[in-house]
Amino acid sequence: MNTTTLMNWESFKAKLQAHPEQTLQFQYAADQWVDASYHITEIKQAPIVSVDCGGVMNSWTEIIVQLWEPSEKESERAMQVKKALSIVELVEKSLPLNPIGIVKIEFGNSHFDTRQMYPGEMTIDGENLIVNLNPDATQCKAINRGGSCGTNETGEECCSPAAAVTVSTEKPKIQLINFAPDAESCKPGSGCC
Hints:
Layout: H1 9-17, E1 23-29, E2 32-33, E3 39-51, E4 57-68, H2 81-94, E5 102-109, E6 112-125, E7 128-135, H3 141-144
Parallel strand pairs: 1-7, 4-5
Antiparallel strand pairs: 1-2, 3-4, 5-6, 6-7
């Protein structure tokens, strides 16, 4: 996984710690903001292990901060960074978070399907620390490594259509064999079972 441009937990937390008195705002699309009454409902740590189409095993950890926007507005002002940090502290008492884990923010509301996004640029605007969220995207790790997408030694690619498989509709025949001699077999009332 190409993680060189993604923010890890240590960097994300350090940026929060540098601005405890700021108000924490999240922008999920152009001029679209998570409502000020949002809650941080949980922080998840997800170890990922995968095998890509080139047959290479990959592993990394994601730290997912889930935001919830209540249906009824509860506040005109978003939480301060120090409140978010107190939630982080509470989580880390029970679950030590991997400092190099990739950070994702999980959010959705009635106008925006729930998804996981990456924190991008974090900027100060007056009293606000604004976290701009970038969409997640799929990638081909084999191609990103400079390889091919699972081409094997015969030139067949993993992404090419599979060859047609013929399936027989004839039922297999089963042969039953009696391994016990007739004299020793169980008969009703014989007391053998």
